[in-house]
Specification:
Elements lengths: L19 H41 L3 H20 L8 H11 L34 E4 L2 E4 L5 H8 L13 H9 L29 H25 L5 H8 L1 H31 L13 H17 L1 E3 L5 E3 L3 H8 L1 H26 L4 H4 L5 H27 L11 H4 L1 H4 L2
């Protein structure tokens, strides 16, 4: 945002004069924050394991029903994971890892076949249509790659962000999403990707060729997602690096919490994921573009921010994790601001809830992005305005807690719109 420096994460301390009560509560707030993080990643892991079971069933007996079950499991896995994105930006350990599991957008032609309208290699990405599924041998950066066996090691070690191109996303949720749905060729019309289950069938029933390799890629990507989530879950355990690092520097830990809330709200979701797509009227800017799940992606990102301020999270099994919170810290120094912050979070969730309800009712996010669609623009802008407005209150929280130099991520779509079209 314009009132804050817009790059990276600052680790600052409470100013002298912070009340003893406030200082005494920091450890409890950070412990609860870590407990919520551990629970969210545990839930992300368990739902990914359910996804793996569904993928195995699909590949063992491809059918419309088993493909639908795998898609349903993928959608369920996104609910806890999106709520965990609030741990980004303020926690370097999460930022350094996150690109493996949730990077987007991706050049899907790297992975599998695409429609002819997709185009071919470009100056920006020579591997845009490499099609690993169809090619057991190819060259990367002058080195011959043997992809006879598609393994997690191949995806992570050779393919992901190959040749330094960020859109060469070979791993994580969105690679799996593409393999389950295929391309969404509907543009700004209603409808998601429509891959046939026979893309995973054997013998003469196989469509689009290489069904065995396509299945192997799907299995490898799912296996890698689980191992990555296992690792991150452990980092938030009792002796994990993420937890112990926060508790080892409590002042920096509080900064990390607010940095994650503000950066996700403003630059990432309001800017890069929502405003940019609306400005360009481009469905390719959807976060979950193959599945048309973007409305849920935004909704649960918003829920994740609210979770952290209130210090509570409802797990996939219905259990609630709760405890000392930023809300408690703010209420101790400025009760009116706490009421304001809670109200802003509620308003954002109401706006995102309206967007979600419309999409669940058949008015897809693709359609909302269409030029001239006033109803869709109003729904998307409602979410954007909510995120921007709550970030302004997060700034006030930073001031009330006497923090210096907290840095939120920005976005040209919000801070310098003319640059988007240059």
């Amino acid at each position: 945002m314009k009132s804050l420096i817009l790059a990276g994460t600052a680790l600052t301390a409470f100013a002298a004069g912070t009340t003893a009560v406030l200082a005494a509560d920091k450890a409890a707030v950070l412990t609860n924050y870590s407990n919520i993080a551990e629970a969210k990643y545990q839930d992300s892991l368990s739902t990914a394991q359910h996804l793996q079971t569904a993928v195995d069933a699909l590949l063992a007996a491809p059918s419309a029903d088993t493909l639908d079950a795998a898609r349903t499991a993928w959608l369920a896995s996104r609910v806890p994971y999106q709520q965990s994105e609030v741990f980004r930006f303020g926690n370097a350990i999460v930022d350094d890892w996150e690109g493996k599991v949730n990077a987007w957008p991706l050049d899907e032609g790297l992975i599998d076949y695409v429609d002819t309208s997709y185009g071919g290699p470009s100056d920006e990405n020579a591997l845009a249509v490499l099609n690993v599924v169809a090619n057991p041998a190819f060259e990367l950066s002058g080195k011959a790659i043997d992809a006879t066996n598609i393994t997690p090691e191949l995806l992570e070690g050779s393919l992901h962000e190959a040749e330094g191109v960020e859109s060469n996303v070979a791993t994580g949720y969105h690679a799996i999403e593409f393999l389950l749905w295929g391309q969404d060729l509907n543009g700004i019309d209603h409808g998601a990707g429509n891959r046939a289950f026979t893309d995973f069938s054997a013998g003469d029933v196989c469509t689009n060729g290489n069904c065995d390799r396509r299945g192997a890629y799907l299995q490898a990507a799912t296996e890698l997602l689980i191992s990555d989530l296992e690792w991150m879950t452990a980092q938030w355990g009792e002796t994990g690096e993420a937890r112990t690092g926060l508790l080892g520097d409590e002042s920096a830990g509080i900064v990390a919490m607010l940095t994650g809330m503000g950066s996700l709200s403003y630059g990432e979701v309001a800017g890069e994921r929502m405003r940019l797509g609306l400005m360009l009227n481009d469905p390719e800017e959807e976060h979950d573009c193959f599945s048309d799940n973007t409305h849920n992606s935004h909704y649960y990102d918003g829920k994740g921010v609210q979770n952290i301020y209130l210090g509570q999270y409802t797990r996939v099994n219905g259990e609630t994790i709760s405890g000392a919170s930023l809300s408690n810290l703010v209420a101790a120094v400025n009760p009116d601001l706490d009421v304001e912050m809670r109200g802003k979070l509620d308003a954002t969730m109401n706006a995102l809830g309206a967007l979600k309800a419309a999409a669940d009712g058949g008015f897809s996010y693709d359609q909302m992005l269409a030029q001239g669609n006033a109803e869709g623009e109003a729904l998307v802008m409602g979410g954007i305005n909510g995120f921007v407005d709550q970030t302004q209150s997060i700034e006030r929280v930073v001031s009330a807690l006497k923090l210096d130099g907290v840095e939120f991520e920005g976005s040209d779509s919000l801070d310098n719109p003319d640059a988007v079209f240059q």
